[in-house]
Amino acid sequence: MLSFRLIQSRVLLQLLLAATAALAYTRLSDASLARVPSGDDDFDATSGKLLAPILIPRVPGTPGSEKARRHFADFFAAQLPRWIVEWHNSTSVTPATGDEEVPFVNLVVRRDPPWAVAEGDVARLTLAAHYDSLYRPEGFIGAVDSAAPCALLMHVARSVDRALTSKWDAMLANGEVGGGLEEEKGLQIIFIDGEEAWVEWTDSDSLYGSRALAEKWESTSQEGIHSTPLQSISLFMLLDLLGAAEPRIPSYFGKTHWAYQHLAAAEDRLRGLSILETRPEPHPFLVDNQKRSYEFTRGFVQDDHVPFLERGVDVLHLIPTPFPAVWHTMDDDGAHLDIPTLRDWAKIITVFVAEWMDLEGFLPPLQQDGEKTDTRHSKKDEL
Ligand SMILES: [Zn+2]
């Protein structure tokens, strides 16, 4: 009986540790907040290395779409080689293109802890944005929809990459790995194709890439705590329509309001330390920090999270309500972006990711101006 109880309490301990690991979220110190990079002129609409190359029409199956994909893949290959790159291909007919099968290509990049664990033992914070642009009007750019969010995700990956390496190296050196008692934390970014409707938004004419990916990940089995790649998503954080001034981002889901509050706290602390450039009035970007559980309704915005939400994945949706005034017009271009707002988003989201990944103490100092200039020159061809 005694040994049975011991076994029971060990199981309980394991469950408790797993739950603690899933919820662990360590605030950055003020000193670390000051180290979070803004991306500087990488978000410039005409010359920014992250953003400018994808401010082009990116209709699925066209050369612009291929060019955007290459931009992401080349960036990770050249600057973030530790990230694993995975392509996810599907095809579909659309109401605008007749019998022709249009290709939809999602790009998934991820970093998992370097020690050997079963694929399913890693729970991944998953950030996503769509990179396709509207089929009509012809020549539509889609700067906030969603080239700028894609550039933000590239920036976030770059901003935490060294800290992830340092943290995991330190854990290995201290023998803190391989206990097998808790799931490991990974980070994953998805550049999604085919979000837009070709004719009119319906269940079948929209979300081509995300529907195919969620279906694939639900039906793929893997070893470990989480039996599918879908279950390995700890939080699906979707960015859309970001880059216009004075956004108002509600908290859409009671279930993930705790994560929203962490993000809102990051914005609040960064503003308190005068680290952000914008001074939005009368409310911050994230308006719903004080929202109560009974205030949540079933209303939400249709977007790439839906196929994941329907399958039980926790979702944090960063999309403004109301939409930016330029939404689905020819004015949604680089000239109408508010770059200080973008740089502030870059910081806020990087802080959230760094806190989620427990990177306190591991963020490298910001490069000095002179040093930065040198690095930029030498990195000029890397994109
Ligand atoms: Zn759109």
Automatic annotation (TrEMBL):
One BP term from GO: proteolysis
PANTHER family on file: GLUTAMINYL-PEPTIDE CYCLOTRANSFERASE (PTHR12283), GLUTAMINYL-PEPTIDE CYCLOTRANSFERASE-RELATED (PTHR12283:SF6)
Protein name per UniProt: Peptide hydrolase
Organism: Podospora didyma
Domain Peptidase M28: 124-352
Pfam families: Peptidase_M28
Family: Belongs to the peptidase M28 family.
Signal sequence annotation: 1-24
GO function terms (MF aspect): glutaminyl-peptide cyclotransferase activity; peptidase activity; zinc ion binding
Matching InterPro entries: M28_QC, Peptidase_M28, QC/QCL
Keywords: Acyltransferase, Hydrolase, Metal-binding, Protease, Signal, Transferase, Zinc
UniProt-listed Enzyme Commission number(s): 3.4.-.-
